[in-house]
Amino acid sequence: MSDEKKEIEAAPRPASLTAGEVEDAVFDPKAEDDFEVFKKTTDGVQFRLVGWPKASVIFLKVIFATGVLSIPTAMFGLGAVGGAMSVIGWGVLNTYFAIVQGNFRNRHAHCHSIADMALVVGGPVLKEICGALFIAAYVLCTGSGIVGLATGLNALSDHAACTVWWAFLSAIVIMVCASVRKFEKIGWLTWAGFISIYVAVFIVVIGVTTRDRPAAAPQTGDFDLGYHAIAYPSFIVGMTATCTIFVSSAGTSAFLPVISEMKNPREYNKAVYVCMALVQASYLTFSLVVYKWCGKWVTNPSLGSAGGTIKKVSYGVGLIGLAVSGCLYLHVAAKYVFVRILRDSPHLQRNSLIHWGTWLSCTTILGAVAFILAEAIPIFSYLIALTGSICFAPMAICLPGWLWLHDHGDWKRGGVVKMLAYWGHWLLILIGAFTCVGGTYGVIKQIQVAYSDGMIGGAFSCADNSGVHG
């Protein structure tokens, strides 16, 4: 066993607690501080300043971000009934696994990220695999934020410049915002960002209901709306749509670094429940309305679905939200690398040149990689779906199932209910593996078709790739 794993496993934890009871426990403040990655300090950088209401808003902005802009497109692949069931099902599952991760983290509080948790249950090799997936996931999410923001700037400027230049400007804005060092300081940005994107989507939802036909559909003569209550998609289309909906609420691994900066990490579950209840209700209603009125003519991202005027209004209102989405994703990825580098160094909580140089290098390098990936896969929904299948399926389904099994291994010898729960988590791990393999295959095939059909103009092309599926 590595020294780092021994340190994490040896961290003091109350013997009287069982899994699931952590959130109700009362700890001695000094003992709890020894438990944490960031210590409460008066002579260094104080990171632990986030209360649970602010945490819930950060979680809201992490989840209710670019995902909501791609779900109506996924509805076309699955149909209204299948799409609604997928939104509800994945929402419940992702909420449950967010709680599993939080409870596990509070029992092993030296864990700053999902990779640290992987170290506890699977050793250093699994830790490095999960760390790589974590970085890849949130760099790809940052790329989706860059694409969304660039599309908005393109729309507002009437395509006054090449799309690549708008993407480059978007990447710079996101990198600057992400360089704010603490989640507590980003808090006000998340309030503005969540309200911004929520109002923007609401404007589009109202706007599509005022039109006789979708803005992207032929404006004269008969046309096929493409609305189906029940659809019969191919495996490739179905898996791509499923991954798109899954990833819209799967970013719960981004919650974990926030726990380390909360004043009271035991209030994490309250923040999760508030966040996920609002997100899932909004996802379901907004996506069903947009799909009902736009069918296959929904744009991608969906903010352009109600016509030119509403498109400009919604993007104008939503620009802050799109920027903050990318900012949060990049901040989470950079914070992981930053803590990995400086975790055992006094510079972790010291205002030194090494501290700042390391932090700004993390945001700049990862932001540059996100920009390159965003231009290589510029169709918004495919970028989202690929992130879900490759990265989030292992991190948000397989690993949380393993975490639960680690803390509940004795349940396989319990009563019927406990045994069903135990083997049910093994089934969830298999579902995660299937989603990873099948989803990745489906999305790659869709991307190949998009390139061959000319939907994607090529990497670093000036073409606007935010088209419709019709």
UniProtKB/TrEMBL annotation:
Instruction: List GO terms (cellular component aspect).
Output: membrane
Q: Where in the cell is it found?
A: Membrane
Name the keywords, alphabetized. Membrane, Transmembrane, Transmembrane helix
The answer to whether keyword rRNA processing applies is: no
A Gene Ontology molecular-function term? L-amino acid transmembrane transporter activity
Lineage of the organism: Eukaryota, Fungi, Dikarya, Ascomycota, Pezizomycotina
What is the protein's name according to its record? Transmembrane amino acid transporter
Query: Which Pfam families did the record assign?
Result: Aa_trans
The annotated topology with respect to the bilayer is: Multi-pass membrane protein
Q: Which InterPro entries match?
A: AA_transpt_TM
Q: Does the keyword Transmembrane apply?
A: yes
Where are its TM segments located? 58-81, 87-104, 125-151, 163-181, 188-210, 230-259, 271-293, 313-332, 353-373, 379-405, 426-444
Q: Where is the Amino acid transporter transmembrane domain?
A: 51-444
Q: Can you name the source organism?
A: Trematosphaeria pertusa
Entry's family note: Belongs to the amino acid/polyamine transporter 2 family.
